Structure formats: structure tokens, C-alpha cells
Amino acid sequence: MVRLSLEELYKEVILDHYRTPRNKGRLDPHDVMLERNNPLCGDELELYLRFKGDDIEGITFDGKGCSISLASASMMTERVEGLGVKDATALAESIKRMMAGEEEGDPDLIGDLVSLKGVVKYPVRIKCALLGWNTLLEALEEGSGRKPE
Amino acid sequence: MPLDAEVVRKDFPILETQARGKRLVYLDSASTSQKPRQVIERIVAFYENENANVHRGVYELGERATAAYEGARSACGRFIGAGSHRSIVFTRGTTEAINLVRFAWARSRVHEGDEVLVTEMEHHSNLIPWQLLAHETGATLRHLPIDDAGKLRMDLLEEFITDRTKLVCVSLMSNVLGTINPIRALADAAHSAGALILVDGAQAAPHMRVDVNELDADFFAYSSHKMCGPTGAGVLYAREHLLEEMDPFHGGGEMIREVWPDRATWNEIPYKFEAGTPAVAQAVGMGAAVGYLEGIGIDAVRAHEQQITAYALGRLADAGAIVYGPSDVAERGGTVSFNLGAVHPHDMATIVDQEGVCIRAGHHCAQPLMRRLGVPATARASFYIYNTNEDVDVLMEALDKAKGWFG
Ligand SMILES: Cc1ncc(COP(=O)(O)O)c(C=O)c1O
Question: Tell me, what's the ipTM?
């Protein structure tokens, strides 16, 4: 993939979602709500999920934090809404591996999110980019343990 | 003599390196300072010429090592106006020094119903040990509030220091706000209530003249690595009679006098508190750092930092930044925390890093203070002897760029 400069990463990927976050705010009703933070830097994130059967019917987030953590969360909600729990889990795991530098990132699976890879060059910021995804994985696990309606 | 930062800079090899291909502009000395050649060379010389264990070898080399180590102890005592080397305990740093007081003094003297007073601006190092103490003893931890200018609410002292107070724990200079606290007034209040005062000097000792007698401090802690010395060394100063009365801290070699299978007696102070082989080369390096700063003159250090801080505060105000802490440089040190418009401190630190500028972003190990300020994080630039107004200019230009991106 093309290596984005920091300026390109911000201007072409991050700032759009930071300024106009998608799916921001509380989701009511919801099946799972998780609040997680990044103690290193004070980023705070709340993640709301509603399931329909095994699918994510709705997902929103709220919180305070740096542009990378909030933009990543915004992109995540956009991408996983409507996915089944299994697919969303696989996607989140794949993003984590990509950010750890363990894999290039499967373009078919990851799509636009590959742009998040620009953050890999700034190791201390990877935690920011992954806050949403780690919270999602926990929420999916909690969600899959819930009683079927 | 006033300090010439351009001359001082030449002592610091790291300042000749680059960051992201640009001139390194190091504005994070509150976190850890850079090291001058004089200190680095002293550590090398110790390993090359004097290395042996201390207080053990009967051979001449052992004597040389011990002399170097004890010489450093005297220097570290002199640096803060301590009368005797007996009141200077070497530790790994401020954090360990504070924990030493928790275990060796407070644990058997603070009980349920007693109070320990900290302040709203303390570093986690001077908060968590007291939370732990409160949890294990049932004592109450209280927090002296700050006002909106980032100064302690001294008007509330009577309410917060009472006959239940056993210990007052306060930093001489805040690592977030830069505020210099009125320690003497706090010490007087503590002492008239029958309490002791522990002063966290981690941020102050590197930057301003300290005299533990003028402060009337019972305990004073500071770290080598923030004052041009190596990591892994620090000092706990305590009044001699307190050290005499205190329980040991770590058990092991060197801290004992006589040992039987089931009991032991303790070495004289300060060795009673230095179990095991100490960080000898680091202590020697810390002593060299004291010598280096004395050579420049600690008052010249302070004057230089006041000048650069005033310049930075002016430039930040012009840029529309919110600065936390006192605006008068007579009341603060050269640690400046700020926020700038919609740019999150993390983004700011990453963006200015592209220009070779090192600033800190986050909660600065002071989460309760961040909550009090009503912000999740701040950016922080901190200045030392090797910084110049030009460094501030580079920072401001880089911040301008960050603002532009988010604009
Ligand atoms: C005010 C204050 N107290 C304590 C500490 C802890 O010092 P050290 O990490 O050297 O033990 C610091 C260092 O960040 C500090 O700024």
C-alpha cells in the first residue's frame, strides 16, 4: 500500500471521521454497553451494541479522546454495523494483527480500514487506534453470551 | 553569572542528534532531563577506575569505590542544605523514597482515625503510597484543594490540618501546573498540629535552590534523572532522629549489624535503609550531576528558566492556548501545561514530533488533578538549562501547523 505521510493520514482519513463522526451518541435500546479507556493518555470510549439474532443490528460510540481513537471508533461502527458476530470478531482480530505489524491486512476483509495502517509508524498511537476495536471484541464476547430472545 | 544556554547545550551530546530528521528540540525535562558529558564521563570513569562493591572490600579498590559513593552522598546532602550525610539515604528515586517513608515510618505510626493529608496536585508517586497506607491502616486520606489558578487553598489549612493529621505530603513544585508551593507555611501548620511533613522535591530540586532547614521539612525526596544525573538513583532526606527511630525498609545485606538465625540488629543510619548492593555508579553519577549544577549555579538555572517560561507563556497566550497553573513566573517553574483549541494533546504531540519537538501529552501521572482541571489530558512543555527561546519558537511554529490541520 502507499505509505501516507502524517499529514495525509490526518487530512485524508482521520479528520473526516473526527469532525463528522458516524454513529456517535447513545444507542437505545442496547444489549451491551461497555466503557473502556486508555489509561496512558486518558482516551475514554463508550460502546453500545444491539443485536438481532447473531447480527449487529446497531452500534454507536461516545467518548472523549484524540482524533485517532475517535476516528478509528467511528470507522469501526460504520464498517461492522450489520455484520454477524463471527465476521465482526474476525475483522477486529485482523485489524489488531495488522496494527501489530503481523499481517499486511486482507484488502477484501479490511477494505478502507487499511488506511488505519498509517498509524503503525507511530507506535505510541497504536493503542489509540485500537481502543475501539478492543472494546468491540469484549462487547461481542459479552453479547454472544447473552440469552437469546 | 547568568546562564548561557548556547554554551550549556554543548555539554549535552544528545542535543547534537536529530529527531525525525530535524534538530532535536527537547521539551520534556520534567519527565527526565538529558545528561551532560561531565556526568556521563564520571560514570564511565567510575567503571574504568573505581568499580568494586562498597563498604565491603578491605582492599584499596573497595576503598576507592566507597569513597566515590560516600562523596556522592555528601554532595547530594549539600545540594539540599542537609547538615549531615547521616540524613541522606540513597534510593532508586523519588518514588522509592516516598514508599520508604510509608513502610518504615508511617505504617507503624499511622492508625485508624488518623489522617494523612495530600493535595489535589500530587503526582501519583505521592498519592498512591498514601492511598495504600490508608487502606491498610484504616486512616483517612484527605486532599487539600487547589484554586482555579492552580495554587493550594492555604485559606483552608485550618480545616485540613487538625490534631488527627499525622503526615502532610506535598510537592514543592507541581509536575503539571509548575506551581511552587508554600512549604514553610505548610510545615509550620503541620508541626503545630503534631504532624510531620514529607516534601516531594522531584520537580523542584533540579530547578531551584532547596534548603531542607528553611523548608523545615521532615522528609524530602528527589530523583537524579530529572537533574542531569542517571536513572536508578535518588535521595530520601530525613531528620536524623526520625531515621534512628524508624523501622528498617528492605531487609538484606549491609543494613544489618549483627545477625542470628532468628533475629538481627540494624546498621547505623543511613545504611540501615540501604539493603543489598546499592546503585553505586548511579549514585556517583548523581553526585556528579550535583557538581555540574553547582558549577552553573542553581540560582542561574532558576533565572534562566524564569526568562524562558515568561517567553513561552507569552507566546502561548498569543496563540490562544489555555495554560494551567500560575501566570506569574515568580510563583512557578518551567513546566507549562496547556491545551490548544480543538487539537487533542495527543495529536499535538504527534504532529510537533514531526518537527523534532518532544513534548508530553496525557495525564502526567496526575489523574485526579486532570479531573479537577476538567480535562482528560493536557500537552506539557518543560524547560531546562539547555533550552532557548528559539526552542520555544520551533514549538510554536509546530503548534501552529497542528492548529492548521485541525482548523
Ligand atoms: C512531582 C513528582 N513526584 C514524583 C515523581 C516520581 O519520580 P521518579 O519517577 O523519579 O521516582 C515525579 C516524576 O515524574 C514527579 O514529577
Answer: 0.85
